Amino acid sequence: MFLRLLFVLLIALNIAVGAWLLLGQNDTRAHFATDPGVPKLHLLSELPPPATTTAHAASIAAPASASPVAAPVATTASANTPQPASPNALSYTCMALGPFATQEDLRIARSALGSEVQRMRARQEQTQQSKGWWVHLPPSATHTAALAQARQLGAHNIQDYFVVGSGDNENTVSLGLFKDPANARKRRDEIVAAGFPAQMSERTETVPEYWLDLIPVDSNHFDWRSRIHDPAIGSHSTGCF
């Protein structure tokens, strides 16, 4: 009798242990499916969508968001647009004044313009200047021939002549030097009418002239004529220095 009871108890104990192993052990191990550090397994339904799908969705959403982004770009472009210059802004242009007849005239002009100019320089140039108009006969081969021409002029009551005895115009009969070309032409025509081959030519010489190059402080309000009253002085633009 005792053995039967012991046998029944062992069977019941085995059934209880088996039930605990089948039912209670699964719930306990559910929290420790993998060892620490080992990636967890996922079902296909649990995986995230492919990258191509995400990129396609982003490309579809891009046009919708393009309009809000365009506004800041337009604002930036307008900020970089050059603004019109203020009417009170200073400006400068390099210019030259002259010609001045003497260095003293140039010095006076520099003193008069000093406060209105930020930079100045003086320069000298050589120029050909007319010294008048010369009426004469063509040069003769010899001095004797030139004297013979002079006597013929006297025979026709033509006065105011002389024979050049040396220099570049040696053996030339001079008939006068004139400032006004109209007077020179009149004299020439009188001699030609008397039967002599009179000629008319301009006489020039090389003379210095002086210029003042300058950069005004403000070209828009630079009135140099209020300080330099010589009507012979002019101005023109020139290269900056």
Describe the protein.
By secondary structure, the protein is of the alpha+beta class. Among the domains are: about 95-130 and about 205-235; about 130-205, Sporulation related repeat (Alpha-Beta Plaits, 2-Layer Sandwich). The protein has 5 helices and 6 strands. It has helices at about 1-30, 50-80, 105-115, 145-155, 180-195, and strands at about 95-100, 115-135, 160-165, 175-180, 200-215, 235. The protein has a 6-stranded antiparallel sheet, with helices on one face. It starts with a helix and ends with a strand. About 10% of the residues are buried. The model is unreliable at about 25-35, about 50-80 and about 85-90 (pLDDT under 50). It comes from Dyella caseinilytica.
Task: Provide a compact summary of the structure.
This protein is α+β, with helices and mostly antiparallel strands and about 240 residues long. The protein has helices at about 1-30, 50-80, 105-115, 145-155, 180-195; strands spanning about 95-100, 115-135, 160-165, 175-180, 200-215, 235. Helix content is about 40%, strand content about 25%.
